[in-house]
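Q: Hi! First time asking for a complex rather than a single chain. Here are the components, and I think there are three in total. Is that enough to go on?
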Amino acid sequence: MSYYLQLLLNGVIAGSVYALFAVGLTLVYGVFRFINFAHAELISWGAYLTLMFSSPPVSWPLCLAVIPAVLLTAFIGFSQDWFIYRPLRRGSPITLLIASIGLSYMLRNVLRLIWGSDLMTFSLPLARGFEFSGYYVTGIQLLMLAAALLFLMILYLLLTKSLMGKSLRATADNLELAAIMGVSMPKVSAVVWTLASVFAAAGGILLALDTNLEPMMGVANLIKAFAAVLLGGAGNVWGALLGGLFIGIAENLGVAFFSPGYKDFVSFAVIFLLLLFRPRGIFGLLTGVR
Amino acid sequence: MDYLLHVMILALIYSVFAMSLNLELGYAGLYNFGHVAFFGIGAYVSALLSHAGVPVSAAMICALAAAGITGALLAVPALRVSGDYFGIATLVFAEMFRLVCLNERWLTKGPMGLPGIPRPAWIAPGVEGMPAYLLFAFLAAVGTFVFIRRLTGSPFGRALKVIREDEHMAQAFGKNILLFKVKAIVAGSVLAGWAGTLWAHYISYISPADFTLTETILVLLCVVLGGRGTNWGPVVGAIAVVFFGEAVRFLPIPPALTRYVAPLQGIIYGGILVVIMMKMPNGMIPEHRRKNT
Amino acid sequence: MKKSLGIIICVFLLCAGPLSAAEVKVGSNTPLSGKLSVYGEGFQQAMLLALEEVNAEGGIKGSPMQIVFEDNNSTAAGAVSAIQKLITVDKLPLLFGPAASSNFLAVCPIAQQNKTILIAAESAAAEISKCGSFVFRVFPSDALQGIGVAELTQTLKYDQVVLTYINNDWGVGLAEIFKKKFTAAGGKILDEFAHDEGKTDYRSEVLRIRKSNAKAVVNLTYIKEGATVLKQAYETGLKVQWLMGSASKSPKLVELAGEAAEGVIGTYPTFSQETPQYKAFKAAWEKKYPDKKIPVFGEYNYDMVKLTAKALRMAKSMAPEDLRKAMIEAGKGYMGVTGDKTFDENGDVGAVYGCWTVKQQAIQDYK
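A: Yes, that's all I need. Here is the structure of the assembled complex.
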């Protein structure tokens, strides 16, 4: 039994990070109605930029290196929109999707060009996890869980309590109507892209701290995040959290029953079945923030 | 100049692959990002059957049938969603296919791949057979081209375009949209399987690593670069992409810098996709449209 | 469009122009870009070092030897393209094959059919033995290593183990041989599963190991996957004896896994570092590349080129059959840096397996 509980615990932690990625994806989808494939690259760029600032020649301590890294990632996210998606917004969502696939491939290869395809690490000192009556969890994992909850809480407050949040939700509801009603579109898109990038970068950095960095880390997690978005219902923030947790738990518990070679298969199958049978999401029924 | 033959064979096989995607993406407006799965099904079925002793031509036909049936099985549920959701559903399907090939070792030998896939009996193995294989690939490509041109020039093809532009109008004309789309996907899958068999029997070795997202991006690039919804577009796109990829071999790049070649190539491919979407979404050979939109 | 195609073809023909005819040329199908490029660079440097020595000793019957390097993007399709070019454009009778067994397996039928000698310096899959009479390798087959790991497990008196392996050609091939040998000798495998290549989270896999309460785990994997598994096992307080293969024997493993790598025991094909051949190689390497460590499999690549040069000198002509005979002849009793290179009937060499372990954050020989 404790074996399954530990798997469950691992699933919850993995899921909280998927939720961080999913929130950004779902925000962009909610407002602009397209799937930003290049969201994956915001994840890995956040992590790699932190590595850059924390290793020679800059060599800042990690907590300091995070700041410019997140800012730069937000800048990348913002430029994605400004130079590519904004001019394309009048076209079909498919044009945007293909462009974002191209952009993702391009950014990923820039990453390879600079840092190579090899695995990188922050070389933190190794620590044994904390043990709670037979269950193990590491400090960084706790940090991941806490950060995910904190970020989502902030987002929730932002969306419900602030004026900006209200205009965001209005835009998500009906972009044209919101614009007519005097919602400043450049402002909304700036906020959306900043939020999406910061969340992606934060998740990427946490993931890299917990494990390692490699160029594919973004794409591998993007697909999971997408599954979370679908589960939660596109555009639904709390849905993304629940969806992320569901995916994390499902794939980790899956290891107990299938060959670990099929670990990814579980989340892919979830996406596939959901898309075909519940495209509005399971948790879409819950009243979430959109 | 057997190497040139090799490059030409590759370009022809990619043309078939790109044409098959174009049928769905260009004509029917179905954004299939998992097309590589059908390429893979064609390759694996054909290779496994010919390893089991089935004559190559019979194995190829079975492979086409398998790709078509899988296409139909995927299409019927997947068409419940449209646009970008359909794209993601197919993309995920392709990854699931790859994972099955990787893990079901009793069947596919997993990551070891399948070496020594024979060529059709009338084509000699090795270099001697290359001109014959070129002829074979050429005939295959011409056949595919003619088939698609006739298909898209027929009322069926025109109906597909109407559906692509405006589903409601097509419905108003009493067209069964779902049936049309399923037919387009089945035809596209059979042709992708055809490209896959041509590839497997030529390269003579396949493994799950050959059917990844990168391959999807490459063939997508062929189609949008050449021009969606045109007969020549994907052919031109495929030839351009294959020749560009091979021409890099002949650039005088010092050995110390060669490790930068692959990422640079990736940057260029990705960049081209973005630029095409922004500057010339119709590709090198734009589709003729009536100016009423 | 036609114009640009024309230009491309012209570029082709210009660059493929003739090199000096007096040279004896061989080809090399090397991963200079793509995921194996990290290793490819080292292979190339080792080959170039050997080449320099061959030419300093007077080359091949008076003419200098030359290696034409062709990149294979670390993929099977790229390796096929590269070998087609080497065989048909450069018309080379003898080639050094690509790294990674799957890529090698993709090209070896082509070499065999074209009667082109193909030599491997780092591809280990047991399947390669069946490639044909024109295929040789100076690197021992996994068939030997699988047996080596099984024997190590038994000498350490672990008769119940968990077996996990990386889900690629190398891991799967090795695991199968290990399993056969280990169970035949009465060992019991408590749980067996593959783990994906290139993942960052193996915690659930680690838990599965934990569940079986095994005292020892045979983990046949690469460097980064190995390091991640070790690290995450350490975090959860899992205390087992890790038994690993040759592919994770690298200082990088220790660098990535830190203390978690302490006490790991593994096997690797070994050769004495006390022989005059090794000492000469080491001195030459340090002279040519003063600030570079000897790369993974560098010694094998060096031996491959030197042995090839010997064969080329012995060959009656450059005809395929003569070259093949010369290779076998040259290998007989040849003592290279990596030991005896006598080829058996499959073109394989024998090997001595040693054991490595990690002690005080350094890789050492295990005795």
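A: The longest helix of chain C spans residues 37-56. Let me know if you'd like any chain examined more closely.
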